[in-house]
Amino acid sequence: MSSPPAPAATAASPYQHALDRGFPKLRFEPLLEREFQRFHSRVNLPRVRWSAWLAFALYGAFVVLDVLTLPRDVSRWTAPIRLFAIMPPFLWVIVATYRDAWQPRMQGPITVAAAMAGLGTVVLIAIGLQRGHPLPYEGILLVAMFIYLLASLGWWRALAVNVATLVALIGAELAWQSDPQARLYQVVFMLAANVVGATGAYFLEHSTRSVFLVQRLLNERASHDGLTGLANRVALDEHVSRAWRQAVRERASIAIAMVDVDHFKRYNDRYGHAEGDVALQAVAGVVGAQARRPLDLAARYGGEEFMLVWYRPADGELDALGERLRAEIEALRIPHADTDGGVLTASVGIACVVATPAGSPQRLMEAADAALYAAKQAGRNGVHVDAAPVAAMAPVVAS
């Protein structure tokens, strides 16, 4: 017999796809990239906070050092630049790490702070050169390494800030450095710091992205059925419970459809379990396609049984939804010689209620199971929508 086409339900995970495809440019597809940025911000929040505190404290210490050790005509410029231009952005980052609303968008404040640190330090160097009192160049190297490795900036942002700092430094050296040898060494050292820092930061972010994908892939596999790609029982129970609580708050309706492949034991006995698995995958593709809205869910309930959760279905649409589901499974035209029609079919039972605190999702699932039993008793390959009240819950529709 010919195998049915592979269903959408078993399509490759976006995390697996990204791992297989690779990400040498340190970018994912837009939706996955946004998810990674939220993950990155959350995971690196403590590091960002303490790095900002460290930078703030060090620049504060340098303010004191400038006042105590530099000539007055130099310190009267360098100290205010550190105090009023470089330190405030780091204070902004610190405050932002304690604000829930800002935490997912930390890359903006960090970029500003990093740019002010890099360009501000170049200005300090230029002031020292102008006044014949060169400042130690190790400071700009430390800033470059800080931006690459401690600031938790995305690699492209860190590279852009450091390249801008390098260009500014070269300009300052050409304008005010009178010693050509010193100028050469200082520029070469800054270039070397950027090469080392950028390389280390690249592999650090690549590793972070790999960890993110692997973690998400493991979580996905833990909550999905391995054969069909639909949600598994654990994910189903969690989703139903969560959707029920929301429906109670919103006084909304929830419908559950139980789907059972007809005479599936006979199918396995005749065609074998390998073909049975392929058939279940095809059915799963149809079932999964019926979960279209954000709070809808399609799951493999067990064996040849599937469950659909529909959140806030429209009045009177359940009969049509159930019939479409039944018809599309039959339309797969999977041969099944041990049925009257000669193709694989399924029975569908549906129950729907307005969620109330007095009710429970377990009762709704029991009602859907009873509706499925009624559909099978009526001859299979049919749909039954429960018209009876579920204990302490008013039904929304009747068949």
Radius of gyration based on Cα positions:
32 Å
Q: Oligomeric state of the chains?
A: single chain
Helical fraction: 55-70%
Instruction: Tell me the distance between the termini.
Output: 38 Å
Note poorly predicted spans.
Answer: 1-11, 389-399
Q: Reading side by side through the largest sheet, how are the strands ordered?
A: 2-3-1-4-5
Order of helices and strands: HHHHHHHHHEHHEEHEHE
Please work out how many helical segments DSSP would assign: 13
Total strand count, please?
Answer: 5
Q: Give the biggest sheet.
A: 5 strands, mixed
Structural class by helix and strand composition: alpha+beta
What do these coordinates show?
62% of the residues lie in helices and 9% in strands. By secondary structure, the protein is α+β, with helices and mostly antiparallel strands. It has a 5-stranded mixed β-sheet, sandwiched between helices. The chain is elongated and about 100 Å long.
Summarize the structure.
The protein has 399 residues and is of the alpha+beta class. Helix content is 62%, strand content 9%.
List keywords for this structure.
13 helices; alpha+beta
Please outline the helices and strands.
Layout: H1 14-21, H2 30-43, H3 45-69, H4 72-97, H5 107-130, H6 138-149, H7 155-176, H8 180-223, H9 233-250, E1 253-261, H10 264-271, H11 273-289, E2 297-302, E3 305-311, H12 318-330, E4 346-354, H13 361-377, E5 383-385
